[in-house]
Each structure stands twice: as C-alpha cells, then as structure tokens.
C-alpha cells in the first residue's frame, strides 16, 4: 500500500523554495553574529573581573587591617623597649589612609567596595553570556 502523500513526506526536511528563505538565513546570520559578539564581550568582562576582584578584596582588607595589626604590636612593644615603641609608632604613621593616582583616590574601603562591585559585574556578565549563548 502506497501512502497518498509520499512525495510530501520525502521533502519535509528540505528548506522551502522561494525568496523568504534567503532573507531568513541572512537575518539569522546577523542575529547569530550579534549574539556571538555580545557573548564574547560579556565573557571577556567576566574573566577580567573574576581575576581582579579577589586581588582588590585582599588588598583592601590587608590595607585596612595593617594599621590595627601594627597598633597591636606597638602595645606589646611598649612594655619591652622605648626605642622599639618609637620605631613601631613611626612605621604605623607612615601607612597612608589614601593613595591618589592621577585623579583617582584609593582607600582600603574603596578597594573592598570595588572588589565587591566587580564580583557583581562578573555575575551579571555570566548571566548575560548564558542568555546570549541560548539565543545563538
């Protein structure tokens, strides 16, 4: 027994004939190219922020804890020797509260905040990269 639509069943995997298919493929190509560019940008930003965020966090926390650590050392050194106390207090006073590089001012708190913001940017870029990959 032959099926009544045998020719249609054999051609169901072929693209439709005519003009709209060529326009559709160009539009799809442009969409995939745009998604690929966005995916690259989001993934690149994610990689850079994942590299720099822990560094900024460690620098900020270390810079914030260092004066307290030296203060603790100076209290124990005060009972030992007056010259040692003077040296430790001099070292503690040389730690800057802020560093200005060009027009940017860095503090321990700003480094920690920048690290946290970079972690948030990495999470956002990971989400957007996953959406862009799904659209491709």
TrEMBL record:
<protein>
    <submittedName>
        <fullName>Uncharacterized protein</fullName>
    </submittedName>
</protein>
<feature type="transmembrane region" description="Helical">
    <location>
        <begin position="115"/>
        <end position="133"/>
    </location>
</feature>
<feature type="transmembrane region" description="Helical">
    <location>
        <begin position="26"/>
        <end position="45"/>
    </location>
</feature>
<keyword id="KW-0472">Membrane</keyword>
<feature type="transmembrane region" description="Helical">
    <location>
        <begin position="52"/>
        <end position="73"/>
    </location>
</feature>
<keyword id="KW-1133">Transmembrane helix</keyword>
<keyword id="KW-0812">Transmembrane</keyword>
């Amino acid at each position: 027994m032959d099926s009544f639509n045998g020719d249609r069943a054999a051609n169901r995997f072929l693209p439709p004939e005519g003009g709209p298919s060529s326009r559709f493929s160009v539009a799809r190509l442009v969409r995939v190219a745009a998604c690929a560019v966005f995916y690259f940008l989001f993934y690149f930003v994610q990689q850079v922020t994942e590299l720099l965020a822990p560094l900024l966090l460690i620098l900020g926390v270390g810079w914030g804890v260092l004066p307290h650590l030296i203060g603790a050392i100076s209290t124990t050194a005060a009972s030992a020797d007056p010259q040692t106390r003077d040296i430790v207090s001099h070292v503690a006073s040389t730690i800057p509260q802020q560093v200005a590089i060009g027009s940017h001012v860095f503090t321990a708190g700003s480094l920690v905040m920048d690290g946290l913001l970079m972690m948030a940017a990495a999470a956002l870029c990971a989400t957007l990269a996953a959406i862009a990959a799904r659209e491709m």
